[in-house]
Structure formats: C-alpha cells, structure tokens
Design a protein that fits this description.
Distance between the termini: 27 Å
Shape: globular
Structural class: alpha+beta
Number of domains: 2
Order of helices and strands: HHEEEEHEHEEEEHEEEEE
C-alpha cells in the first residue's frame, strides 16, 4: 500500500474513534509516521528556567535513548518538536483555550540552535486537532485573526485541523506571484539579519478525508529540519491524492523586528492601486527590466522583472535602507 493511502486510512480511523479514546488513537496515529529519534507522548513541556506548559495530548520529541522504559511526564523544551492539542469537537471557546495552551508552549525558552551545514530549527510546531465541528472553518479562521492580533507571531499555532472538514494554516506568497507552498515557522534567529519580502497568508484547505495526510505532511516536513538525519518518509509522499484547493483569508508581512503584522486593508489586491513601474532600457531603447516599489511594513519591497540583476541596483540605496534587505528569486514553477 502506498504511504499516502496508508496515512489516509490511519486518519479515518483516528477521526472515527469514540469519545474518550481520541488521545490514545491520535498519539498512535502520529507515532506510526515518525521514526528515530522521535517519540510521541502525552506530556508537559518544561524549559531550563522551570517554566512549564499545559499537558498536551501529544508531544513529538527527540528522545536521547533508543527505548524509554515509560513515557515521560515532562519533556525538555529543547527536545520538543511538535505539540498537539486535541478535542472531540471544536468550538470557539475550546479553540481559544487551545490557542492559549499552544502559545504558552511556544513561549518556553530554548537553547541556541547548533551551527550545522544543513538547515535546522529549534522551534516547536503547534497543532490544534479536532475530529469535528458544528462551525465552518471560516469561523475559526476569523477567530484566529482576532487572537493573532493580541499575540506575538512567534506564539501563533501553525495548523488548526478539523478532521471532517480540512485545515487552517499559513502559506507563503511572494509579491507578483501566485500562492506558494505551506509556510513553516522560521528558525530562531533566522530573521535577525534578513527580513524576507513574503506575504504570510492564512489559508483554508478543504481537504476532507485527506486532512490527516495534510497534517502529517506538514509535521514530518518540520521534523526533518528539527532533527536533520531523522528516519522519516518524504513528506511529499503523504500528499498523493490530497486536494490542492486553498482559500486565502488574510495576510501578514514581517516588520524589521521580525514580527508579523497584518497587511493594511488598502494594500489588498481588490483595492490596491500600485505606483506605476519604471521601465529600464539600454542606450538603444531596448527593454531590460521594469522596477516597482511596493509598500511594506517599515518600508518597501522592490519588485524587479527582467534581465537586469537587482544586486546591481542595491548600492544606489542608502546603507541603512538596505541593512536587512535580501533578494528573493522567483520564476516559473514546474
């Protein structure tokens, strides 16, 4: 059986268990697809200062021993890769409570990331899972926006799953481009020197019975950079047959402090009138490129289309203006 079909069957089984057995079924379902060094336990997370999270239905953590005599009641924050909060049925009230529990876990202090030649992260991913809900996904996306407005972006949950409907998560979208892939939270310190010109948008994914596939693909992608070298399936293999439809709800931009802030309402596509681009030509009038300034948090983003390299233009800006500037290359996707 292909792994995507196997994950689909596991997701159906987890979504169908009776009240009171969800916790054990969800842990078993997740653990089936995470390999060494990862284990899954119902536990709290504790940091070096003694700050402790609430107890989660599932914590995916990097175990230091191959086999543990018993599931630990507390997981060191440095080892906690994913926390999963769960409910049989999701309501606005228990969604708010789950959001707060995830935020507290993501707030715990971690040791600095090791310096490796491969991309790595120490961030704890936060997932909220429910078997069902009487409310549409849109209701939780709107509540997510309200809660995000009062919470630092580093503490936001990364995915909200309603097994019978689909998932709410974040996706990346570059200026001038269509919606890109899922957006994993950046590693600690990744934004200290470079602020990416990317919209981080809340999207609804109506994945139906494939929702567990989408969730596990996202979790496994994160686990692969939390512990490089871990024994994991390729996360893209989980997505065979998963609907690709995504409904964009709202968007955010990074400011120069590395915080996500809402895109101003007057900058949305249906009401934004951008400044006309400048055309750059050579001495013979031959077109080389167009360049356009797009308003952004704490400044602007330069959108360049054409043959002319943007790096050749950056020295003409003041050094302070481009202190955290970087170049994102976008092009055809195959």
């Amino acid at each position: 059986m292909a792994i995507a079909q196997e994950v689909l069957e596991t997701g159906r089984q987890v979504a169908a268990v009776s009240a009171g057995t969800l916790s054990a079924a969800l842990r078993a379902g997740i653990e089936r697809y995470v390999g060494w060094p990862y284990k899954v336990a119902s536990a709290r997370v504790v940091d070096a200062d003694g700050e402790v999270s609430d107890t989660f239905v599932a914590v995916v953590f990097a175990a230091k021993e191959e086999s543990l005599a018993a599931a630990p009641a507390q997981i060191p924050a440095d080892s906690a890769a994913v926390v999963v909060d769960a409910a049989d049925s999701l309501t606005i009230d228990n969604f708010r409570a789950a959001y707060a529990r995830v935020a507290r876990a993501k707030r715990l202090k971690k040791s600095p990331a090791p310096k490796l030649d491969t991309p790595t992260t120490t961030v704890t991913l936060g997932v909220i899972y429910a078997q069902r809900s009487d409310l549409p996904l849109e209701a939780f996306a709107e509540e997510l926006e309200r809660l995000n407005a009062a919470t630092p972006s580093r503490e936001w949950p990364d995915m909200i799953v309603v097994a019978s409907m689909g998932a709410i998560q974040y996706a990346a979208q570059f200026p001038g481009e269509s919606l890109s892939g899922d957006y994993l939270p950046p590693a600690e310190g990744a934004l200290n020197n470079y602020i990416p010109a990317v919209y981080v948008v809340i999207v609804l994914r109506p994945t139906g019975t494939f929702t567990f596939n989408k969730m596990m693909s996202f979790v496994v992608a994160h686990l692969g950079i939390f512990s490089p070298g871990a024994k994991l399936s390729n996360f893209t293999d989980f997505l065979d047959g998963v609907p690709k439809t995504a409904v964009v709800m709202s968007g955010y931009q990074y400011d120069l402090k590395g915080n996500l802030n809402p895109v101003p309402s007057n900058q949305y596509q249906d009401r934004f009138v951008p400044a006309p681009p400048f055309q750059i030509t050579d001495r013979r009038g031959q077109h080389l490129a167009t360049i356009q300034l797009i308003p952004w948090q704490d400044g602007g983003t330069i959108l360049l289309k054409g043959k002319l390299p943007l790096l050749g233009l950056l020295p003409f800006f003041g050094r302070q203006d481009i202190l955290k500037a970087g170049v994102v290359y976008c092009g055809p996707r195959f």
